[in-house]
Write a structure and sequence with these properties.
By secondary structure, the chain is of the alpha/beta class. The protein contains 18 helices and 18 strands. The strands form five sheets. It has an eight-stranded parallel beta barrel, surrounded by seven helices. A three-stranded antiparallel sheet has the order 12-13-14. Helix 2 packs parallel to helix 3 and helix 7 crosses helix 8. It binds 3-methyl-2-oxobutanoic acid and zinc ion.
Length: 535
């Protein structure tokens, strides 16, 4: 913006309008209960979004209830409900939003030729009249009113300007220009916002807003182009969820603003360190894991496996990182040790695990590591410790899964249980029997009892893969221990040991990072300084 917007200085504040709980939630497979929406709204408020679109109150009693609960319990952001341009919808939304400290009604009406003809059966004059009537009524019941010209991008420009001008004249404070079908391009939307700024009477007293869908994969780029042209509100959803291909992914825009201040000279109310937890909470609530390679919040977004990259990151993380994991609230970067990794990364991990390795030992260990990585992909810490020669008998080592047995009982009175045997160099073999909601949870409980480390399973993904004539299960887990996240990974022939080994791997990482002993207690300074010698 500093580059090409001549009149950008008037107001550099850009508002985030979050529609995760409305546009996001209305996509198949993403529905949330009122309780879950409330939980998510809390995370959005912590993140610092300016407006939470809590639902579409007239759509169902459940949605009205969710809007009401969020309006009652969440403070900070403005709470908003979607509404058609009818007295009926406005009345229901007014009831649901009554407890809000600050309320907004979001009225939408199709303006494009196809919407007017095929959906509304309205002529242009009827559309204008409906906007005037509904917005004028709404301003009497809410702190503020937003008007959306649905399918704005495919609307004749002069009619779009007329519709938005009518909304502004009737009292709408925010004029939204949705790309309902995800059709526009950055150049086109930039040009359109420029046109609207000079052709909508009253636009100077309103906030122009952008709402882009991702059908052609350009929602974020289009939203940013609209901001460059003068939009001062961005609508979107966490993790980019929403109708069809989704909405503009808000976390991506937030990090563009934070990372490219040289291009976007804007201010926001966002605390980017709350991005990761909001993203993970949404994934958990909706049961839709974040794709591994998703920008900003995917598990690979800050992971490095290639040897050349790892070497660079170890020397100076800025060689391959334009932002830090801490910027989004993810502690530590993940150097994934796999077949692409080099000696530098292996040495660094050995050091973290408490090993000092001389050059002769390193050459040997490195070729064993490469052979194992060729077969397995990523190598877990417990396996590294075995490679470094410290799994058994060396002081301060990691837990190793020796055996797991379980009873999977469903129905009746019998409770699932698991018997787990772990081995630790300092404690030797330890067995525990625990119950749980299912056998794998029972096994996790047994591991907690043995290690003395309480953890919450945030994510568990087990994939069954067939390769080279054999099938394997790869388990990836994310544990939350207090407020820190630890990842674990394992590869086994079956689902259950893979899940439990991945859990133990994450526990081992937590022990290393936190310098914990085999009882889950902080090690004394003397024992933490003990170096194992792998030579
Ligand atoms: O995509 C869209 O047009 C919408 C409107 C209701 C704003 O979601
Ligand atoms: Zn939408």
């Amino acid at each position: 913006m500093t580059r090409d917007s001549a009149n950008h200085t008037r107001d550099q504040q850009v508002a985030f309008f979050d529609t995760t709980l409305r546009d996001g939630e209305q996509a198949p497979g993403f529905s949330m209960s009122a309780e879950e929406k409330l939980l998510m709204a809390g995370a959005l408020a912590e993140l610092g979004v300016d407006v939470i679109e809590a639902g579409f109150a007239a759509a169902s009693p459940g949605d009205a209830d969710a809007v009401k609960r969020i309006a009652s319990e969440i403070s900070g952001p403005t709470i908003c409900s979607l509404s058609r341009a009818t007295g009926h919808d406005i009345k229901i939304a007014a009831k649901a939003l009554a407890p809000a400290r600050h309320s907004r009604l979001h009225i939408f009406l199709g303006t494009s030729p196809i919407h007017r003809k095929a959906k509304l059966n309205m002529r242009k004059a009827q559309v204008i009249s409906a906007i005037e009537t509904s917005v004028s009524l709404a301003v009497q019941h809410f702190d503020e009113v937003e008007f959306s010209a649905e399918d704005a991008i495919r609307t004749e420009r002069d009619f779009l300007a007329e519709a938005l001008e009518c909304a502004a004249r009737s009292g709408a404070r925010v004029l939204n220009v949705p790309d309902t079908v995800g059709y526009t391009t950055p150049d086109e939307i930039y040009d359109l916002f420029g046109y609207l700024k000079s052709h909508v009477g009253g636009a100077e007293n309103a906030i122009l807003s952008t709402h882009c869908h991702d059908d052609l994969g350009m929602a974020v780029a289009n939203s940013l182009a609209a901001v460059r042209a003068g939009a001062r509100q961005i609508e979107g959803a966490i993790n980019g969820i929403g109708e069809r291909a989704g909405n503009c992914a808000l976390e991506e825009v937030m990090m563009v603003f934070a990372t490219r201040k040289d291009v976007f000279d804007v201010r926001t109310n966002v605390d980017t360190t709350k991005i990761y937890s909001a993203s993970r909470l949404l994934a958990k609530i909706t049961g839709n894991p974040v794709p591994r390679n998703k920008a900003i919040v995917g598990r690979n977004a800050f992971a490095h496996e290639a040897g050349i990259h790892q070497h660079g990151v170890l020397n100076d993380r800025r060689t391959y990182e334009i932002m830090t994991p801490e910027d989004i609230g993810l502690p530590g970067n993940a150097l994934i040790l796999g077949k692409h990794s080099g000696k530098h990364a292996l040495l660094a991990r050995a050091k973290e695990l408490g090993f000092e390795i001389d050059d002769t030992a390193l050459a040997e260990i490195f070729s064993a590591f490469k052979a194992l990585a060729d077969q397995q992909g990523e190598i877990a810490d417990a396996q590294l410790i075995e490679l470094f020669g410290g799994a058994r008998g060396a002081p301060g080592g990691a837990w190793h899964l020796e055996r797991v047995e379980m009873r999977a009982a469903y129905g009746g009175r019998t409770e699932p249980f698991a018997r787990v045997e772990l081995d630790h160099p300092d404690r030797g073999p330890v067995t525990d029997i625990a119950t749980g909601e299912g056998p794998i949870h029972a096994a996790f409980n047994a591991v907690q009892n043995i290690t003395g480390i309480k953890a919450i399973v945030e994510e568990l993904e087990i994939n069954h893969i067939g390769a080279k004539g054999r099938t394997d299960c790869i388990a990836d887990i994310v544990l939350r221990i207090d407020n820190e996240h630890f990842i674990g990974r394992a590869r086994c022939r079956d689902v259950i040991p893979a899940g439990v080994e991945a859990y133990v791997d994450a526990i081992n990482r937590a022990m290393t990072t936190r310098n914990l002993d085999a009882y889950g207690q902080n090690k004394s300074p003397t024992s933490s300084n003990t170096k194992r010698n792998a030579a």
